[in-house]
Amino acid sequence: MDPCHLEQFWFTLLHSGDPRELWHPELEIVFLLQGTGRVYFSDLKTAYPLREEDIFVVNSFEVQDFELDGDSTALSFSMAPEFVGRVAPELLKYKVSCRSFLYVEEKQSAFHVLRQDLARAFQALNKREKSGASYSKSSAAAILEDLSRYFLDDSQPVESGHVQQTLKTVTQYIQEHYRERITLDALAKHTYLSKTYLSRCFTRYLGIPFTGYVELLRLSSASRLLAGQGTLTQIAEESGFPNVNAMIQAFKRYRGVTPGEYRRALNQKTGTSQGMELPENGSALFAALLRYAAVSAPQIPETQRVQEVTVDTAGRKEPLSAHWKRLLNVGYARSLTDGRVQRELRRLQQTVGFEFLRVKGVLDDDMCLFRLDMNGNPVMNFAYVDEGIDFILSLGAKPMLELSFMPSLLAKKTDSFAMRGSILSGPKDVAAWQALIGSLMTHLAERYGGDAVALWLFSPWLPPDFIDMGLCSREEYAEVYAASCHAIRSAVPRALIVGPGSVSFSACWPWYREMCRQWDCMPDVLSFRSFAAVGESEEDEIKLIGNNESFSFAVSGDEDFLSHTASQIREVLRRDGLESMPLILEEWSNNIWQRDLCNDTCYKSAYLFKNILENNQSLSAMGYFALNDRLDEIPPSTETFHGGFGLFTQDDIPKSACLAMELLAQMGDKLLQQGEGYLVSQRGEEIQIFLYNYSHYDLLYRYRHVANMSKTNREQVFVHREPRAFLSG
Q1: What integer pLDDT is reported at residue 372 of this predicted model?
Q2: Element (H or E) spanning 160, and its range?
Q3: Fewest CB atoms less than 10 Å from the CB: which of 405, 424, 558, 650?
Q4: What confidence tens digit (pLDDT) does each residue in 671-728 have?
């Protein structure tokens, strides 16, 4: 075998008792030729038994240990990171999940393909008539293609998080420069990190000091080169050792032998310094592998992504707060007097238990709060407000009140909002508006007690997004918003104010922040809304199918729209030194279209699972919108399942989203483990496992093209997502 090939990929025969590193930079495939053994991953505690023909992959720098029994032997095929990065770079970005011993014979098809290509690569690298460089490289590339096609787990990045990203940058730099004179000072200068921090990272996260890490990389290189014909001086220099003596000391320290002894042992095991020579008539030792070389490749059924989840139930557990259960949108305040709404809320409070129930339209005309009496005189009437709040309190929840819309008696304009006639307008007289809010807050404090009301949440007015809809100018908005805030705090000084509640938080924040500072009306809790809505410009070649029953917005193609939005907001707040302020999602759903037929399907369950489980810990509350399909914003439908985005239909039937919430309410109070598509929690002695496989809308349906949608077939409008399976250990 050409020595240059040894630097890229090579076979090694493994015997019982052979020394083995706990981790290494190479991507490695191990095939058990004969006998039995065990392999350990990650925690080095869980042993997976191995038998003949088992095959598995050890990822680059993956911690593992491997034991063989008696006369058992295994074949290892290692590929250097440089080679993998050139041929299949995705295999260095994500983990390969390939462990045949976890599957029954009926599930071995993909593993048989890998066994076949491994057998052919073994022949190519060892039989003299197939030792050509191009054939050898193509054989190794075929193996990488198998790993990428059948076993790549893109849900498990090799590195993630701040520390992991730092280690990735650091180790990549060392990987590129370990043959040079590299020091911790040079590394610190390159990464802009302190020497102390870097030193601590190596010891804590890799279990070895910086100098040891560099030395092991050089040792790994030298070990491969010793299979070739180079002199010890040449090998030491090419591997980055300052001299031969340094290489000798490293071999003694880690291998227990000198480089010369290591080379002799290597040649004895392989039979030749040019590789492991196969007898022309075959060898019983390799028969288990080579029998795959002659068979045809099996037909592979539709791929199924399999993810192994190992949970340490005895380890340290993080607290898991149910922030998503802190808030639910009921809809318009008047609906609290509806018997169907009351039944729905009683059920949810029994099965889920929300801390706050949010209502809007508290000042709407249908609440009869500010009306004219029979003589034409304005009067205050709190009957419907009290009835609604009394019901919320009877459920053991607290109110979150949006002080909207504008009573017609105070409105500067009487433009209505959608079908239900809510008025979008500023007041004719700001002082009169402020007096109205003050009277309402004084009444609440007198009826329910100031201390109790101080625990509720108040939105002073509509969100600033309505400025762009012609509600008013920024100056007018600021005056009305501030007047409302001051009236709230004048009556209940410790009242909790929430704002701005915008769907474009990052865009409106600079102006809103300055307004609050200027008018002394900074909220106590920050809020935003998310409906994954985007304008038509996101995909130029697709035209949005509009109608007169919805805003003209398509659905974003970003499956993680909510998570990304929350992260962007947190970054904006961080720059202003406000990252510690509570941040709540006061309204959210997958779409702003109330005729999306997918809202009635199990898709909505997957959507809730994904977004609640992935955002619950990072937000102080998540107010799903809305309780039911009876919002009166568009004409009612004669169909029960017409695509409304409520938890219940207009006929009071719980939909899949409701059932998903009730299932998620069983979540424990301790987090054991979480990853893409799953969360494992614990409460007392009980362990809860939540699994989901979310598929997003395809491009056409995101722009409301419904050619592939019907009332009875609602499955053809999603991006294809391969099935997933989870194995627990």
Answers
A1: 86
A2: none
A3: 558
A4: 999 998 999 999 999 999 999 999 999 887 888 888 778 888 888 888 877 788 887 6
Residue pair 611/625 in contact by the 8 Å Cβ criterion? no
Averaged confidence pLDDT in the chain: 86
In eight-state DSSP terms, residue 298 is P
Q: pTM score, two decimals?
A: 0.65
Q: How far apart are CA 159 and CA 167, in angstroms?
A: 8
* DSSP, res 257: S
State both tokens at 680: 């494992």
- Which of 409, 327, 429 has its CA nearest to residue 364? 409
Backbone torsions φ then ψ of 686, nearest 5 degrees: -95, 140
Q: Are 61 and 171 in contact (CB under 8 A)?
A: yes
Query: CA gyration radius for the chain?
Result: 33
C-alpha–C-alpha distance, residues 153 and 529, integer Å: 33
Distance of alpha carbon 39 from alpha carbon 147, whole angstroms: 20
Give the relative orientation of helices 244-254 and 259-270 as an angle to the nearest 10 degrees. 60
Cα torsion angle, 574, 577, 580, 581, sign: negative
Contact present, 366 and 661 (Cβ < 8 Å): no
d(C-alpha 672, C-alpha 686), whole Å: 12
Say if residues 295 and 714 touch (Cβ distance below 8 Å): no
Q: How far apart are alpha carbons 280 and 186 in whole angstroms?
A: 52
Instruction: Give yes or no for a contact between 59 and 81, defined as CB atoms under 8 angstroms apart.
Output: no
**Three-state DSSP class for residue 728:** strand
Residue with tokens 């699972």: 609
Give the C-alpha separation, 257 to 252, whole Å: 5
Q: Which residues contact 189 (CB under 8 A, 6 or more apart)?
A: none
**Across 116-125, 153-162, 355-364, 657-666, least confident range:** 153-162
Buried b / exposed e along 173-195 (16+ C-beta atoms within 10 A):
ebbebbeeebebeebbeeeeeee
- Degrees (nearest 5) of the Cα angle 126, 127, 133? 70
Estimate the crossing angle of helix 603-615 against helix 561-575, to 10 degrees: 20
> At 270, is the pLDDT very low, low, confident or very high (cuts 50, 70, 90)?
very low
Give the N- to C-terminal CA distance of the chain in Å, as an integer.
Answer: 41
* 3-state SS, residue 383: helix
Residues whose CB is less than 8 angstroms from the CB of residue 624 and which lie 6 or more positions away in sequence, other chains included: 328, 329, 588, 589, 608, 647, 657, 661
Helical (H) or strand (E) element with 65:
strand 64-68
CA distances from 268 to 256, 306, 600, 698 (A): 17, 40, 68, 59
Q: Which residues pair with 402 in a beta bridge?
A: 459
Helix ranges (H only) for 178-243 are 184-191, 195-201, 210-225, 232-239
For residue 636, CA distances in Å to 187, 334, 619, 643, 649 come to 66, 17, 34, 11, 11
The residue-averaged pLDDT of 596-610 equals 96
Token digits of residue 138:
């193509």
Given this model, what pLDDT does residue 6 score?
A: 47
Strands of 670-675's sheet, edge to edge?
318-319, 670-675, 678-683, 686-691
Q: Are 655 and 589 in contact (CB under 8 A)?
A: no
